[in-house]
Design a protein that fits this description.
CATH class of the largest domain: Alpha Beta
Order of helices and strands: EHEHEEEHEHEHEHEHEEHHHHHH
GO biological process, one term: proteolysis
Protein name: Caspase family protein
Distance between the termini: 21 Å
CATH architecture of the largest domain: 3-Layer(aba) Sandwich
Organism: Streptomyces tuirus
Number of domains: 2
GO molecular function: cysteine-type endopeptidase activity
InterPro entries: Caspase-like_dom_sf (IPR029030), Pept_C14_caspase (IPR011600)
Strand order of the largest sheet: 2-1-3-7-8-10
Length: 392
Protein backbone atom coordinates (compact mmCIF):
# COMPACT_ATOMS: atom_id res chain seq x y z
CA UNK A 1 0.00 0.00 0.00
CA UNK A 2 3.02 2.25 0.04
CA UNK A 3 3.42 5.05 -2.45
CA UNK A 4 6.27 4.50 -4.90
CA UNK A 5 6.75 8.25 -5.13
CA UNK A 6 7.18 8.56 -1.35
CA UNK A 7 10.45 8.43 0.52
CA UNK A 8 12.14 5.52 2.21
CA UNK A 9 10.71 3.71 5.22
CA UNK A 10 13.02 2.41 7.93
CA UNK A 11 12.40 0.44 11.12
CA UNK A 12 14.80 0.12 14.03
CA UNK A 13 13.33 -2.52 16.35
CA UNK A 14 15.25 -3.44 19.50
CA UNK A 15 14.46 -5.97 22.22
CA UNK A 16 16.44 -6.42 25.44
CA UNK A 17 15.36 -9.48 27.38
CA UNK A 18 18.60 -10.94 28.74
CA UNK A 19 20.78 -9.11 31.26
CA UNK A 20 24.31 -9.91 32.42
CA UNK A 21 23.38 -8.99 35.99
CA UNK A 22 21.57 -12.02 37.40
CA UNK A 23 19.66 -9.77 39.75
CA UNK A 24 17.71 -8.23 36.86
CA UNK A 25 14.77 -10.43 35.84
CA UNK A 26 14.80 -11.46 32.22
CA UNK A 27 12.13 -10.55 29.69
CA UNK A 28 12.02 -13.51 27.29
CA UNK A 29 9.27 -11.87 25.24
CA UNK A 30 11.08 -8.59 24.53
CA UNK A 31 13.09 -9.81 21.55
CA UNK A 32 10.06 -11.66 20.20
CA UNK A 33 8.00 -8.46 20.44
CA UNK A 34 10.68 -6.54 18.54
CA UNK A 35 10.59 -9.17 15.81
CA UNK A 36 6.79 -9.10 15.68
CA UNK A 37 6.78 -5.33 15.19
CA UNK A 38 9.10 -5.87 12.22
CA UNK A 39 6.70 -8.47 10.80
CA UNK A 40 3.74 -6.10 11.21
CA UNK A 41 5.45 -3.21 9.44
CA UNK A 42 7.23 -5.16 6.69
CA UNK A 43 4.11 -5.31 4.44
CA UNK A 44 3.94 -1.51 4.69
CA UNK A 45 7.30 -1.16 2.98
CA UNK A 46 9.54 -0.75 6.02
CA UNK A 47 13.14 -1.93 5.81
CA UNK A 48 14.48 -3.17 9.14
CA UNK A 49 17.94 -1.76 9.78
CA UNK A 50 20.55 -2.17 12.53
CA UNK A 51 19.51 -5.79 12.88
CA UNK A 52 22.82 -6.52 14.62
CA UNK A 53 21.54 -4.40 17.51
CA UNK A 54 18.04 -5.87 17.58
CA UNK A 55 18.81 -8.48 20.25
CA UNK A 56 20.18 -7.56 23.68
CA UNK A 57 22.63 -4.77 22.75
CA UNK A 58 24.96 -3.14 25.26
CA UNK A 59 24.59 0.53 26.08
CA UNK A 60 27.55 1.73 24.00
CA UNK A 61 26.71 -0.48 21.02
CA UNK A 62 23.15 0.86 20.93
CA UNK A 63 24.04 4.54 21.28
CA UNK A 64 26.92 4.40 18.80
CA UNK A 65 24.92 2.31 16.33
CA UNK A 66 22.02 4.77 16.26
CA UNK A 67 24.35 7.73 15.94
CA UNK A 68 26.39 6.19 13.11
CA UNK A 69 23.31 5.01 11.22
CA UNK A 70 21.69 8.44 11.32
CA UNK A 71 24.94 10.02 10.12
CA UNK A 72 25.60 7.52 7.32
CA UNK A 73 22.02 7.21 6.07
CA UNK A 74 21.15 10.91 6.20
CA UNK A 75 17.37 10.40 6.33
CA UNK A 76 15.60 13.11 4.35
CA UNK A 77 12.41 15.11 4.67
CA UNK A 78 10.35 12.60 2.66
CA UNK A 79 11.58 9.58 4.67
CA UNK A 80 9.75 7.80 7.50
CA UNK A 81 11.55 6.19 10.46
CA UNK A 82 9.99 4.13 13.26
CA UNK A 83 12.09 3.23 16.32
CA UNK A 84 10.79 0.57 18.73
CA UNK A 85 12.35 -0.50 22.04
CA UNK A 86 11.11 -3.37 24.24
CA UNK A 87 12.76 -4.10 27.58
CA UNK A 88 13.05 -2.85 31.13
CA UNK A 89 12.48 0.85 31.70
CA UNK A 90 13.12 2.57 35.01
CA UNK A 91 12.89 6.06 36.42
CA UNK A 92 15.83 7.58 38.27
CA UNK A 93 14.76 10.91 39.64
CA UNK A 94 13.13 12.93 36.86
CA UNK A 95 14.73 10.85 34.09
CA UNK A 96 13.53 7.68 32.40
CA UNK A 97 16.15 5.10 31.38
CA UNK A 98 16.15 2.13 29.01
CA UNK A 99 18.13 -0.72 30.55
CA UNK A 100 20.61 -2.34 28.17
CA UNK A 101 21.95 -5.89 28.33
CA UNK A 102 25.04 -4.84 30.33
CA UNK A 103 23.08 -2.79 32.88
CA UNK A 104 24.25 -2.75 36.48
CA UNK A 105 22.03 -1.17 39.13
CA UNK A 106 23.27 2.30 39.97
CA UNK A 107 25.47 2.68 36.87
CA UNK A 108 22.95 4.70 34.90
CA UNK A 109 25.27 6.66 32.63
CA UNK A 110 27.38 3.72 31.43
CA UNK A 111 24.91 0.82 31.30
CA UNK A 112 21.54 2.44 30.54
CA UNK A 113 20.30 4.99 28.02
CA UNK A 114 18.21 8.03 28.86
CA UNK A 115 15.12 7.86 26.69
CA UNK A 116 15.76 11.25 25.11
CA UNK A 117 19.39 10.29 24.38
CA UNK A 118 18.15 7.07 22.74
CA UNK A 119 16.19 9.02 20.15
CA UNK A 120 18.30 12.17 19.91
CA UNK A 121 20.37 11.31 16.77
CA UNK A 122 17.17 10.84 14.77
CA UNK A 123 15.25 13.66 16.44
CA UNK A 124 18.05 16.00 15.37
CA UNK A 125 18.28 14.57 11.85
CA UNK A 126 16.47 15.85 8.76
CA UNK A 127 14.06 12.90 8.66
CA UNK A 128 10.61 14.20 7.87
CA UNK A 129 8.60 11.71 9.93
CA UNK A 130 9.88 10.00 13.08
CA UNK A 131 7.92 7.78 15.47
CA UNK A 132 9.54 6.56 18.71
CA UNK A 133 7.74 3.68 20.45
CA UNK A 134 8.77 2.66 23.98
CA UNK A 135 7.35 -0.67 25.16
CA UNK A 136 8.65 -0.53 28.74
CA UNK A 137 7.43 0.07 32.26
CA UNK A 138 6.78 3.74 33.04
CA UNK A 139 7.20 4.36 29.30
CA UNK A 140 5.32 7.65 29.08
CA UNK A 141 7.91 9.22 31.39
CA UNK A 142 10.44 8.46 28.67
CA UNK A 143 8.31 9.61 25.76
CA UNK A 144 7.65 12.89 27.56
CA UNK A 145 11.41 13.52 27.54
CA UNK A 146 11.59 12.66 23.84
CA UNK A 147 8.65 14.95 23.08
CA UNK A 148 10.23 17.81 25.03
CA UNK A 149 13.49 17.43 23.11
CA UNK A 150 11.61 17.26 19.80
CA UNK A 151 9.64 20.40 20.62
CA UNK A 152 12.81 22.30 21.50
CA UNK A 153 14.51 21.30 18.27
CA UNK A 154 11.40 22.01 16.20
CA UNK A 155 11.41 25.59 17.42
CA UNK A 156 14.88 26.01 15.90
CA UNK A 157 14.26 24.06 12.69
CA UNK A 158 13.33 25.49 9.33
CA UNK A 159 10.36 23.83 7.70
CA UNK A 160 8.27 21.03 9.17
CA UNK A 161 9.63 17.87 10.76
CA UNK A 162 7.08 15.53 12.30
CA UNK A 163 8.06 13.86 15.54
CA UNK A 164 5.70 11.44 17.29
CA UNK A 165 6.07 9.27 20.38
CA UNK A 166 3.99 6.31 21.54
CA UNK A 167 4.32 4.82 25.03
CA UNK A 168 3.05 1.36 25.93
CA UNK A 169 2.39 2.36 29.56
CA UNK A 170 1.83 5.54 31.53
CA UNK A 171 4.40 7.11 33.82
CA UNK A 172 3.39 5.10 36.89
CA UNK A 173 2.33 1.87 35.19
CA UNK A 174 4.07 -1.43 34.63
CA UNK A 175 4.03 -2.90 31.13
CA UNK A 176 3.45 -6.60 30.51
CA UNK A 177 5.18 -8.54 27.77
CA UNK A 178 3.26 -8.99 24.51
CA UNK A 179 0.21 -6.94 25.55
CA UNK A 180 1.10 -3.80 23.61
CA UNK A 181 2.18 -5.66 20.47
CA UNK A 182 -0.84 -7.98 20.66
CA UNK A 183 -3.09 -4.92 20.73
CA UNK A 184 -1.16 -3.18 17.94
CA UNK A 185 -1.47 -6.26 15.74
CA UNK A 186 -5.24 -6.34 16.21
CA UNK A 187 -5.61 -2.62 15.53
CA UNK A 188 -3.63 -2.82 12.28
CA UNK A 189 -5.45 -5.98 11.17
CA UNK A 190 -8.93 -4.55 11.77
CA UNK A 191 -8.84 -0.78 11.23
CA UNK A 192 -11.99 1.23 11.81
CA UNK A 193 -11.01 3.87 9.26
CA UNK A 194 -12.82 3.96 5.94
CA UNK A 195 -11.31 3.15 2.53
CA UNK A 196 -10.65 6.79 1.67
CA UNK A 197 -8.23 7.22 4.62
CA UNK A 198 -4.74 6.17 3.61
CA UNK A 199 -3.07 6.12 7.02
CA UNK A 200 -4.08 5.39 10.62
CA UNK A 201 -3.07 8.32 12.80
CA UNK A 202 -1.00 7.81 15.93
CA UNK A 203 -3.90 9.23 17.91
CA UNK A 204 -6.45 6.69 16.64
CA UNK A 205 -4.01 3.79 16.93
CA UNK A 206 -3.37 4.75 20.56
CA UNK A 207 -7.10 5.05 21.28
CA UNK A 208 -7.82 1.63 19.76
CA UNK A 209 -4.94 0.05 21.67
CA UNK A 210 -6.34 1.45 24.92
CA UNK A 211 -9.74 -0.04 24.14
CA UNK A 212 -8.05 -3.44 24.00
CA UNK A 213 -5.85 -2.81 27.07
CA UNK A 214 -8.68 -1.35 29.13
CA UNK A 215 -9.02 -4.27 31.55
CA UNK A 216 -5.28 -4.95 32.00
CA UNK A 217 -4.23 -1.94 34.09
CA UNK A 218 -1.97 -0.75 31.27
CA UNK A 219 -2.66 2.29 29.09
CA UNK A 220 -0.81 3.63 26.06
CA UNK A 221 -0.22 7.34 25.50
CA UNK A 222 1.06 9.43 22.61
CA UNK A 223 2.27 12.85 21.56
CA UNK A 224 2.74 14.35 18.10
CA UNK A 225 4.99 17.35 17.50
CA UNK A 226 4.69 19.56 14.41
CA UNK A 227 2.30 17.38 12.43
CA UNK A 228 1.79 18.78 8.94
CA UNK A 229 -1.17 16.54 8.08
CA UNK A 230 -1.60 12.76 8.05
CA UNK A 231 0.69 10.60 10.15
CA UNK A 232 2.30 8.32 7.53
CA UNK A 233 3.51 5.62 9.94
CA UNK A 234 0.71 3.02 9.80
CA UNK A 235 -1.01 2.11 6.53
CA UNK A 236 -4.76 1.57 6.54
CA UNK A 237 -5.12 -1.87 4.98
CA UNK A 238 -8.66 -1.01 3.83
CA UNK A 239 -7.52 2.00 1.83
CA UNK A 240 -8.72 2.08 -1.77
CA UNK A 241 -7.25 4.71 -4.14
CA UNK A 242 -10.24 6.77 -5.18
CA UNK A 243 -9.04 7.32 -8.76
CA UNK A 244 -8.79 3.58 -9.39
CA UNK A 245 -12.31 2.81 -8.20
CA UNK A 246 -14.56 5.33 -9.88
CA UNK A 247 -18.20 4.35 -9.64
CA UNK A 248 -17.78 2.10 -6.59
CA UNK A 249 -18.97 2.93 -3.09
CA UNK A 250 -15.75 2.83 -1.07
CA UNK A 251 -17.48 2.55 2.29
CA UNK A 252 -19.40 -0.52 1.09
CA UNK A 253 -16.19 -2.12 -0.22
CA UNK A 254 -14.61 -1.62 3.20
CA UNK A 255 -17.66 -3.03 4.99
CA UNK A 256 -17.71 -6.13 2.77
CA UNK A 257 -14.02 -6.65 3.34
CA UNK A 258 -14.44 -6.42 7.11
CA UNK A 259 -17.51 -8.65 7.07
CA UNK A 260 -15.83 -11.50 5.20
CA UNK A 261 -12.27 -11.12 6.51
CA UNK A 262 -12.85 -13.78 9.15
CA UNK A 263 -13.72 -16.29 6.43
CA UNK A 264 -11.34 -15.51 3.57
CA UNK A 265 -8.42 -14.07 5.57
CA UNK A 266 -7.29 -17.15 7.52
CA UNK A 267 -7.97 -19.56 4.66
CA UNK A 268 -5.81 -17.49 2.33
CA UNK A 269 -2.95 -18.17 4.75
CA UNK A 270 -3.66 -21.87 5.13
CA UNK A 271 -5.25 -21.40 8.57
CA UNK A 272 -8.62 -22.43 9.97
CA UNK A 273 -9.39 -19.57 12.31
CA UNK A 274 -8.68 -15.82 12.51
CA UNK A 275 -6.96 -16.23 15.90
CA UNK A 276 -4.17 -18.40 14.45
CA UNK A 277 -0.88 -16.88 13.32
CA UNK A 278 1.49 -17.58 10.48
CA UNK A 279 1.07 -18.37 6.80
CA UNK A 280 1.11 -21.97 5.61
CA UNK A 281 -0.62 -21.82 2.24
CA UNK A 282 1.07 -24.02 -0.36
CA UNK A 283 0.19 -25.40 -3.78
CA UNK A 284 -2.94 -24.67 -5.80
CA UNK A 285 -0.69 -23.14 -8.46
CA UNK A 286 -2.73 -24.41 -11.47
CA UNK A 287 -5.97 -22.98 -10.05
CA UNK A 288 -4.38 -19.62 -9.22
CA UNK A 289 -2.65 -19.52 -12.61
CA UNK A 290 -5.95 -20.15 -14.38
CA UNK A 291 -7.63 -17.30 -12.50
CA UNK A 292 -4.72 -14.95 -13.17
CA UNK A 293 -4.73 -15.77 -16.89
CA UNK A 294 -8.48 -15.16 -17.10
CA UNK A 295 -8.11 -11.76 -15.45
CA UNK A 296 -5.02 -10.75 -17.44
CA UNK A 297 -6.18 -11.71 -20.93
CA UNK A 298 -9.01 -10.30 -23.08
CA UNK A 299 -12.31 -10.60 -21.26
CA UNK A 300 -14.37 -13.48 -22.72
CA UNK A 301 -17.50 -12.30 -20.85
CA UNK A 302 -17.73 -15.64 -19.06
CA UNK A 303 -17.62 -16.37 -15.35
CA UNK A 304 -15.14 -18.69 -13.65
CA UNK A 305 -16.33 -21.06 -10.94
CA UNK A 306 -14.08 -22.57 -8.27
CA UNK A 307 -15.78 -25.81 -7.29
CA UNK A 308 -14.99 -29.01 -5.42
CA UNK A 309 -16.05 -31.32 -2.62
CA UNK A 310 -16.70 -29.97 0.89
CA UNK A 311 -13.39 -29.24 2.59
CA UNK A 312 -11.40 -29.40 -0.66
CA UNK A 313 -10.16 -25.83 -0.30
CA UNK A 314 -12.45 -23.66 -2.43
CA UNK A 315 -12.39 -20.81 0.09
CA UNK A 316 -8.64 -21.25 0.48
CA UNK A 317 -8.08 -20.64 -3.23
CA UNK A 318 -10.32 -17.58 -3.21
CA UNK A 319 -8.77 -16.32 0.02
CA UNK A 320 -5.29 -16.71 -1.45
CA UNK A 321 -6.39 -14.90 -4.60
CA UNK A 322 -7.67 -12.00 -2.48
CA UNK A 323 -4.40 -11.95 -0.51
CA UNK A 324 -2.39 -11.73 -3.72
CA UNK A 325 -4.35 -8.72 -4.99
CA UNK A 326 -2.56 -6.71 -2.27
CA UNK A 327 0.29 -4.87 -4.05
CA UNK A 328 2.50 -5.17 -0.95
CA UNK A 329 2.07 -8.94 -0.50
CA UNK A 330 5.45 -10.62 -0.01
CA UNK A 331 4.93 -12.95 -2.98
CA UNK A 332 4.97 -9.97 -5.33
CA UNK A 333 8.48 -8.97 -4.34
CA UNK A 334 9.76 -12.56 -4.02
CA UNK A 335 8.35 -13.78 -7.37
CA UNK A 336 7.19 -10.66 -9.25
CA UNK A 337 6.84 -12.44 -12.61
CA UNK A 338 4.98 -15.53 -11.39
CA UNK A 339 2.13 -16.52 -13.68
CA UNK A 340 -0.21 -17.16 -10.74
CA UNK A 341 -0.17 -13.53 -9.52
CA UNK A 342 -3.40 -11.66 -10.31
CA UNK A 343 -3.06 -8.28 -12.04
CA UNK A 344 -2.97 -5.18 -9.87
CA UNK A 345 -5.51 -2.37 -9.92
CA UNK A 346 -8.64 -4.51 -10.10
CA UNK A 347 -11.98 -3.53 -8.60
CA UNK A 348 -12.57 -6.45 -6.22
CA UNK A 349 -15.95 -6.85 -4.52
CA UNK A 350 -15.90 -9.53 -1.82
CA UNK A 351 -19.09 -11.55 -1.38
CA UNK A 352 -19.77 -14.76 0.57
CA UNK A 353 -23.04 -16.47 -0.27
CA UNK A 354 -23.25 -19.02 2.53
CA UNK A 355 -26.63 -18.75 4.31
CA UNK A 356 -27.39 -15.61 2.28
CA UNK A 357 -30.47 -15.13 0.11
CA UNK A 358 -30.35 -13.98 -3.49
CA UNK A 359 -32.04 -10.76 -2.41
CA UNK A 360 -29.25 -10.06 0.08
CA UNK A 361 -26.58 -10.71 -2.56
CA UNK A 362 -28.26 -8.33 -4.99
CA UNK A 363 -28.47 -5.72 -2.24
CA UNK A 364 -24.77 -5.99 -1.33
CA UNK A 365 -23.59 -6.01 -4.94
CA UNK A 366 -25.86 -3.09 -5.81
CA UNK A 367 -24.60 -1.08 -2.86
CA UNK A 368 -20.98 -1.71 -3.87
CA UNK A 369 -21.72 -0.56 -7.43
CA UNK A 370 -23.44 2.60 -6.15
CA UNK A 371 -26.77 1.19 -7.40
CA UNK A 372 -28.57 0.55 -4.11
CA UNK A 373 -32.06 0.35 -5.64
CA UNK A 374 -31.21 -1.86 -8.61
CA UNK A 375 -32.78 -5.28 -9.04
CA UNK A 376 -31.01 -8.36 -10.38
CA UNK A 377 -31.59 -7.65 -14.06
CA UNK A 378 -30.50 -4.04 -13.71
CA UNK A 379 -27.31 -5.13 -11.98
CA UNK A 380 -26.51 -7.66 -14.70
CA UNK A 381 -27.04 -4.99 -17.32
CA UNK A 382 -24.83 -2.54 -15.44
CA UNK A 383 -22.07 -5.12 -15.12
CA UNK A 384 -22.32 -5.98 -18.81
CA UNK A 385 -21.96 -2.34 -19.78
CA UNK A 386 -19.09 -1.67 -17.39
CA UNK A 387 -15.71 -0.95 -18.91
CA UNK A 388 -13.92 -2.53 -15.98
CA UNK A 389 -14.45 -5.94 -14.45
CA UNK A 390 -15.48 -6.37 -10.83
CA UNK A 391 -14.70 -10.01 -9.92
CA UNK A 392 -16.26 -11.25 -6.71
Amino acid sequence: MTDSAAGRRFLISVGVGTYKDSGIPGLPGAVADADRVAELLAPMGYTRVLTELSRNPSRNALVEGLDEWAYETQPASEDVVVVYFAGHGQKNGPKHYLLCANHRPGLWSSTAVKSDDFAEPLVQSDVGHLLVVLDTCFASAGTESVATLAAQLTDRRRGSAQRAVLAAARGKELAKEHRFVDALERVLARPQAGPSQRYLSVREVTARINELLDSTGQHASHSVIDSAGQDPFFDNRLYVPRAAHSGLDLSVLAELRKRHEGHYGPRGKGLEHAGERGSYFTGRIPALTSLAAWLTGPHDRKARVVTGDPGSGKSAVLGRFLELTDPDHGARSATPDAGWLPPLGMNVIRLWARRVTGTDLVRDLGAALSLPDADRDQLLKALGNARTRSPS
